[in-house]
Design brief:
Strand content: 15-25%
CATH topology: Spore Coat Polysaccharide Biosynthesis Protein SpsA, Chain A
CATH architecture: Alpha-Beta Complex
Number of helices: 8
Number of domains: 1
Number of strands: 8
Mean pLDDT: 94
Structural class: alpha/beta
Radius of gyration: 17 Å
Strand order of the largest sheet: 3-6-4-7
Distance between the termini: 37 Å
CATH superfamily: Spore Coat Polysaccharide Biosynthesis Protein SpsA, Chain A
Length: 221
């Protein structure tokens, strides 16, 4: 949080806030955020009723956020907060309402890689994702994405999935709603500690078929 506030202090945004979503954690996350919020009134803690999944947590935060633009980032800041400048620039240049950080467009920007099996599975998932959904993006799973608020208000209430495939679903919804989206290369460094079970990884592949079925049934319109 210190890194984010230092970044914001160097900018002159009219309004900023930091939302931390606690997805039923069993560690001291909530207590740390509450303590920080006492000194920083722009910090808000949102608590999920239980561990509901990353997709649920991100949707909760995005629908609670205020301001003209909403950035969601993994808490470990694998993509440094300063990279949001690239997302803003690309969104303005391309007149896009959504800008997604990408580790695949310029792989030399990845300073610390994931373990080879996990990185390989990510590339296989992306290939399957493009084949099943028709989306053109080379990296949908980077947890660093910028949404204009009107786009977020249109997309996230339509999100159905609560798990790790929510990123793909949200981008499919954006495509269905003709919301312009741009993929932007960002600096990224893997931070150990992220846990994705084999079952969750396999479910992500089956989720692609669920997303395609939902789109065919018109559930995203």
């Amino acid at each position: 949080m210190d890194a984010v506030f230092a970044f914001l202090a160097a900018r002159e945004y009219a309004f900023t806030e930091m939302i931390v979503v606690d997805d039923g954690s069993r560690d001291a996350t909530a207590a740390v955020v509450e303590e920080y919020a006492r000194a920083h009134p722009t910090v808000r803690l949102l608590r999920n009723p239980s561990n509901r999944g990353k997709g649920y947590a991100v949707r909760h935060g995005m629908l609670e956020a205020k301001g003209d633009w909403i950035l969601y980032s993994d808490a470990d800041l694998s993509a440094p907060i300063e990279e949001v400048d690239k997302l803003f620039s690309a969104a303005r240049e391309k007149d896009a309402s959504v800008a997604i950080g990408s580790r695949a467009l310029q792989r030399q920007l990845v300073s610390v890689h994931q373990a080879f099996p996990r990185e390989l599975s990510g590339r296989v998932f992306n290939l399957a994702m493009r084949l099943v959904t028709g989306l053109p993006f080379l990296d949908t799973q980077c947890g660093f994405k910028l949404y204009r608020t009107d786009a977020a208000r249109a997309i996230f209430p339509r999100q159905i999935l609560d798990g790790f495939s929510f990123d793909v679903e949200d981008l499919v919804i954006a495509k269905e709603l003709d919301i312009p989206t741009v993929e932007v290369p960002v600096r990224w460094a893997n931070v150990e500690g992220t846990k994705v079970s084999l079952a969750a990884g396999l479910k992500s592949f089956s989720d692609l078929l669920t997303i395609r079925g939902n789109r065919s049934a018109g559930r995203y319109r």
